[in-house]
Amino acid sequence: MKNKIGIFPGSFDPITSGHRHIIEKASKLVDVLIVGIGDNSSKKSFYSLEKREDWVKNTFKNYDNILVKKYNGLTINFAEKENAKFIFRGLRSSIDYEYEKQIAETNSVLNKEIETIFLLSDKKYGMISSSIVRDILKNNGDIRDFVPKEVKIS
């Protein structure tokens, strides 16, 4: 029997408690979940790819079916390369839905065999985003309630 493989792509700049919540949910739906850390050349990252990878790997080190891999280029191409049949995306709001729907429809044109699955965020994570966490950090705020304990920022 083939393993059901899914991916959860993101920049994780930094990973948030909301990301962790959706990744844990997605990991229960597949045999293998690959957390893909995208290197988006058109986006200036706040943290290095290596630092982001380290945080994500440490967050999920005790999960047997979660792998962490870096990639660049189109997410759909990464999914194909990894033999994934599912791309998981988290939704916090209707704004997320509209944005993610466009990407999912585009990916469906590029590869009809890979399905995008939307997972709803628990309401306690609905306001958390990496950009909000970065804003809190830039203003010397406390981010402990917004990121996994493995995210250590000095």
Task: Throw out a few tags for this protein.
five-stranded parallel beta sheet; 5 strands; Rossmann fold; 154 residues; alpha/beta
Question: Can you walk through the features of this model?
Answer:
The chain is of the alpha/beta class. It has one domain (5-138): Rossmann fold (3-Layer(aba) Sandwich), CATH 3.40.50.620. 36% of the residues lie in helices and 20% in strands. It has a five-stranded parallel sheet with strand order 3-2-1-4-5, sandwiched between helices. It is globular, with a radius of gyration of 15 Å. The termini are far apart. 31% of the residues are buried. The mean pLDDT is 93.
Briefly say what this structure is.
The protein is an alpha/beta fold and 154 residues long. It contains five helices and five strands, in the order E-H-E-H-E-H-E-H-E-H.
